[in-house]
Write a structure and sequence with these properties.
The chain is α/β, with parallel strands linked by helices and 264 residues long. It has 2 domains: 127 residues, no CATH class; 104 residues, Trna Endonuclease, Chain: A, domain 1, CATH 3.40.1350. Helices cover 27% and strands 23% of the residues. It has 7 helices and 16 strands. Strands 6-7-8-10-12 form a 5-stranded mixed β-sheet. Strands 3-14-15 form a 3-stranded antiparallel β-sheet, with helices on one face. A hairpin with a 2-residue loop joins β14 and β15. α2 crosses α3 and α3 packs parallel to α4. It binds S-adenosylmethionine (SAM). S-adenosylmethionine binds next to α3.
Length: 264
């Protein structure tokens, strides 16, 4: 790692692992979760990992790929024998999952109104809304209005259109009895309550209702979090997801609890 840093001096003050070890030792116990939301060269995660802590690191810079991921791979493979490795008798092990954040789903237009971010294409938007609403993204070839499912008979339709009463009626007729559909659209006209099998929501409003600002204690308000499932290739709504663990280098982040079954 020292070599890695020496070759590319992008960090003014790389912290010694021993310093981080002291801090982590004082503040946490084995198995605890250590967060560094400004990961830099990844020292916090590397040290936390070697000390048997779980960790989350966040980094917006490209050195996430040039430094942090290579560094943590070396830690996991036991190749990193610098820093505190000798002191803690580090031999390697564990793993991590890597996610690239999607762009913000909403942006404000020039009048300050929240609108859907233009960077989102139809597939990205449908997948993201499914995730937020707790549906499994599963677009159907047979029905244009089936973008995801929550149960056998409950579906979700995501569109940037502004829907007219005639369109809503036609969708309701197609859905029919015995099935229900959550319609997420940019806007709609008419009385949305008149279709017993439809629930109609406006996307900017429904996304905003899931946002939390100004809290001291943030809960992660996203359902259906992507999770590790061992051997499938990975692409998520928020871009490629990479799960790295010793002996299983790059696998999918499927569905489960954030820390179940994968990682360390
Ligand atoms: C001083 S370094 C962090 C050092 C590191 N925590 C350590 O202990 O060695 C700050 C890092 O935060 C990153 N950063 C700045 N703003 C950020 C943001 N909004 N989200 C994520 N990373 C950010 C920078 O790219 C930089 O790599």
């Amino acid at each position: 790692m020292l070599q890695l840093l020496a070759d590319t001096p992008v960090f003014d003050n790389p912290k010694p692992e021993a310093l981080l070890e002291r801090v982590i030792h004082i503040a946490t116990n084995p198995g605890d979760l250590v967060l560094d939301s400004f990961a830099g060269s990844g020292t916090t995660g590397a040290v936390a990992h070697k000390m048997g802590r779980r960790w989350i690191m966040i980094e917006l810079g490209e050195h996430c790929h040039t430094h942090i991921i290579p560094r943590l791979r070396k830690v996991i493979d036991g190749e990193d024998q610098g820093g505190i490795s000798q002191a803690v008798n580090w031999k390697g092990g564990g793993g991590f999952r890597y996610y690239r954040l999607a762009p913000s789903l909403l942006q404000q237009d020039r009048w300050g109104q929240w609108v859907i971010n233009k960077e989102y294409n139809a597939e990205m938007l449908a997948a993201a809304i499914c995730k937020l609403e707790g549906f499994t993204y599963a677009p159907s070839d047979a029905h244009y209005w089936q973008h995801g499912t929550s149960t056998e008979n409950d579906f979700i339709y995501v569109t940037t259109q502004s829907l007219t009463p005639e369109q809503l009626q036609a969708i309701s007729d197609e859905v029919g009895e015995g099935r229900s559909l959550l319609v997420c659209c940019s806007a709609f006209r008419g009385d949305a309550d008149r279709y017993p099998n439809l629930t109609v929501k406006k996307i900017p409003k429904m996304v905003l209702s899931r946002c939390e600002w100004g809290h001291d204690d943030y809960s992660l308000n996203v359902e259906n979090l992507p999770m590790a499932s061992p051997l499938e290739p990975a692409v998520t709504a928020s871009g490629p997801a990479l799960n790295v663990r010793k002996g299983a280098k790059a696998v999918d982040a499927g569905q489960a609890g954030l820390f179940d079954g994968g990682g360390e």
